[in-house]
Amino acid sequence: MVADKGLIWKSPKAVNLRRGWVWVAAVGLVSLLPALVFPQNTESPPAHAAVLETRRDHAGAEKVYRQILLSAPDDPDLLKALGVVLQEQGKHAEAIKVFNQILSRAPLYPGVNSQLAVSYYALNQFDKTVEVARRELTANPRDRQARYYLALALTAKGQTYEAIQQLESLAGDDPRDLVVQYQLVVDYKAAMNAAAERLAKMAPDSEFTHAMKAEALSDAGRLDEAILEYQEVLRKNPDFPGIHLGIGQVYWKKKDNAHAMEHLTLALQEEPNQPLGNYYMGDMLVDEQKFQQAIDHLKITVAVYPELVRARFLLGKAYRGTGDNQAALQEFQEALKLDPDYKEVHYQLYELYARLGDKEKSQEQLRISERLTREGQEQDKARLQESLGKQKETDEKP
């Protein structure tokens, strides 16, 4: 499974970059084409083609570029523009011919091998994709599109770890690129599954395989089955690393506090500063109103994971439970920095400001909490209506 091939062109940055060179081409060609006739509201034929592209009229843009090329058949920027609009229409074989026309005279013309990679990948020609993407990167090592399609092609060829290296480099350069982050998730999952299959084949009844199955079942919400697998791990190897943390987490998910605390206590005896183990313990201790004990555990978690917003929320509740209102206020404010729409935090602040005698801030927090509650209810209602509508369409189909 790979990310949608069109996604890389959906980002505003990619579109703006491409528009940039299209307009540069337009500036350089105005004087070459005085005889061509186009709508009067367009400054030049290339500019008109670019406008058609912004309207996603790629077929219209193709016609314009082909007409311009009758007078300038070897212009590389026009050929490149034509190749791109052919790609947008799914005409990848034609696009490849156009791009190769440029490369026959200039093998490393900027961006052309990168565009070739897009079309070869669309046609499932993964070896060719790798070849031309690497060729682009010899001249333009930072070309994001070439690096991205190189990663996709490597994944398709089964070279997942090499693909991950490319994607991690892209993510390092731009952590906000959601397309790259998504593909990293896909590739890491594929790598994990491949490793799991190898482990299961090598030792199908080992404690390692049972532990692996237990984690997968826990992630899938099949908690009773996960516990059975963890118990098999314990039977085979009582000293298996992290076994009590794993079992404790499953019981915590089941809201079985007694069994969860039993195993998490053993886990924290082995590793007192384990952040997740302390988080689970802190959560249950807040629930049981053992606030000072909860603080001791949650402070360890927040020190390691300062952006774990629920840990901040729980720590604020625990401080409030001990009467340390200022510490509670600080933790709630930190939680809102991480998630301004955390409804439960606003409600806690409503009660806390009332306790502190600040009626104005208390009422403000109540209004925010009520607004977020209404919005959540409206979203739930809309999702329900959408689900019912889809079910009705399914039922009405012959």
CATH uppermost class of the domain at 7-196: Mainly Alpha
Give the % helix: over 70%
What is the count of β-strands? 0
Structural class: mainly alpha
Second CATH tier, the architecture of the domain at 7-196: Alpha Horseshoe
Which segments are poorly predicted (pLDDT under 50) over 5 or more consecutive residues? 1-42
What does this structure look like?
There is one protein chain. The protein is mostly helical. It has a domain at 7-196: Serine Threonine Protein Phosphatase 5, Tetratricopeptide repeat. The chain is 75% helix and 0% strand. The protein has 20 helices and no strands. The protein has helices spanning 12-29, 45-54, 58-69, 76-88, 92-103, 112-122, 126-139, 144-156, 160-173, 178-202, 207-219, 223-236, 243-253, 257-270, 275-287, 291-304, 309-322, 325-338, 343-355, 359-396. Residues 1-42 have low confidence and may be disordered.
Write a concise keyword list for the protein shown above.
398 residues, mainly alpha, Serine Threonine Protein Phosphatase 5, Tetratricopeptide repeat, 20 helices, extended, disordered N terminus
Write a brief structural summary:
This protein has helices at residues 12-29, 45-54, 58-69, 76-88, 92-103, 112-122, 126-139, 144-156, 160-173, 178-202, 207-219, 223-236, 243-253, 257-270, 275-287, 291-304, 309-322, 325-338, 343-355, 359-396. The protein is mainly α.
Secondary-structure blueprint:
Blueprint: H1 12-29, H2 45-54, H3 58-69, H4 76-88, H5 92-103, H6 112-122, H7 126-139, H8 144-156, H9 160-173, H10 178-202, H11 207-219, H12 223-236, H13 243-253, H14 257-270, H15 275-287, H16 291-304, H17 309-322, H18 325-338, H19 343-355, H20 359-396
Helix pairs in contact: 1-2, 2-3, 3-4, 4-5, 4-6, 5-6, 6-7, 6-8, 7-8, 8-9, 9-10, 11-12, 12-13, 13-14, 13-15, 14-15, 15-16, 15-17, 16-17, 17-18, 18-19, 19-20
